[in-house]
Amino acid sequence: MKFPNSYYISDYKLPINDYFVFGLSVDCVIFGYQEGEIKVLLVQRGLEPFKGNWALIGDLVEPKQNLCDAANNVLEKLTGLKNIYLKQFFAFGSVDRHPLDRVVTVGYFSLVNSMDYKPIASSWAKSARWFNINDLPELAFDHHTILLKGIETLKDEVRHKPTGFELLPPKFTLLELQLLYEALLGYKFDKSNFRKKIIEMNILKPLKEAKENVSHRPAQLFEFDEKRYRALEKEGFSFEL
Amino acid sequence: MKFPNSYYISDYKLPINDYFVFGLSVDCVIFGYQEGEIKVLLVQRGLEPFKGNWALIGDLVEPKQNLCDAANNVLEKLTGLKNIYLKQFFAFGSVDRHPLDRVVTVGYFSLVNSMDYKPIASSWAKSARWFNINDLPELAFDHHTILLKGIETLKDEVRHKPTGFELLPPKFTLLELQLLYEALLGYKFDKSNFRKKIIEMNILKPLKEAKENVSHRPAQLFEFDEKRYRALEKEGFSFEL
DNA sequence: TCAAAAGTGTTCCGAATACACCCATGC
DNA sequence: GCATGGGTGTATTCGGAACACTTTTGA
């Protein structure tokens, strides 16, 4: 490697080659929403180390691959979905986090609408399963730590940005939205007040369609108006609750 | 390296050795507060590449060094201060972010009380300077991107957590606190309302001392009550504004 | 006595809360 | 008709915004 003797300004006397010994990986915390509960997608490892344990999906980053591309690839390989909501949340770099060598991993979290998710025929997908985030199995590596940090980030994000919409189908009713937020935040809303608040934000586009095949009055459907949200955001509007 | 043929479950056929080619560094965005303005500490590079440009301080991580230890070391080497507020905010991993080789860098941001900061006699400190965050010089590498992300993170953090206290001396007056938050957030508060709000949060410990040597009525001094804040946080209290 | 900042009190308004109530549909 | 969720209206409360005012110090 044609690296100078010091990267920034360092006191190290070691040849610089000795510094290019890191492995780099990405791990994805994939959230979904089913039956009123927040789920996370895990796979069962088929190889050592930690063979048989459940784990986040992830992979080593290639030498010429951008971090976010690596994360997108991992996600696409498992779900077949492209352009999914994907956000980096933390880099985990403890010396001993991997039993065999020095691997730094970057955590991404992702929200998928479970209806879109069709496990595809890969060695991964066969062993993939959704777990309730309050009822997790033992995890490989430091994936438990990563997952907890991911959940924390999700909750922070949900409270201040209209993140949750990614978990719903594109068209949804106000009650569905309310139930989702109740699951995400862990507390109840008053129906009337929740509606008033979200409607007045002006980030939902009311549709002329209604829910069908329900044994009660059919509810109006809405879409998240992303364009409108971006516009409001620029004006200083900030999503709360 | 005794690495198995696949890290997680991968389709790669390459020998695994080819994946351990990453350099890893940390870069610190160090914020300070002087004369009512938010500053950031930069150093002038003495070596190629980007010799002469201003840059964040940072360094390569050693093979057996934890990420956060690396960041702390960098900070200590420049300022002589240990146990400073330091928080990871993002990993920057573009393939081409470094002109000479593949180096992934992890950004940390830090808040220091400028009174504590005494540049120490090192090759770094000689060329260190505080810059107003609205008046930045040209920066080396992708440090401008990193810095902007750091500023963004700071503003998010400040709004939802009692972060700003690190920028003040341990004992401060309410007006000093107000002016700091005005600088951080970019807008004014009403004196009376600001006081009421912050006092009612119960996270400040009023002292029996007062500011001295001022040509007007001396103000009461306060301390941030970290213990109390942690306790309140556990009960679900959330700091806002 | 004046300037400058410390510190307090009060009114007003809008938003959040807590309910109560009516509507539409399938069975 | 009744169960179920859809959808609306309103009185009350609480907290924030705006602003005025008094106090204490040094010069």
Architecture overview:
By secondary structure, the first copy, chain A, is of the alpha+beta class. Chain A folds into 2 domains: 18-160, Nucleoside Triphosphate Pyrophosphohydrolase, CATH 3.90.79.10; 168-234, Winged helix-like DNA-binding domain superfamily/Winged helix DNA-binding domain (Arc Repressor Mutant, subunit A). In chain A, 26% of the residues lie in helices and 25% in strands. Chain A contains 5 helices and 9 strands. Chain A has helices at 67-79, 143-160, 174-185, 191-200, 226-234; strands at residues 23-34, 37-44, 54-55, 57-60, 85-92, 103-111, 128-132, 204-210, 220-224. In chain A, strands 1, 2, 3, 4, 5, 6 and 7 form a 7-stranded mixed β-sheet that branches. In chain A, strands 8-9 form a two-stranded antiparallel ribbon. In chain A, a hairpin with a 2-residue loop joins strand 1 (23-34) and strand 2 (37-44). The radius of gyration of chain A is 21 Å and the shape is elongated. The N and C termini of chain A lie far apart (51 Å). Chain A binds a DNA duplex (27 and 27 nucleotides) through helix 4.
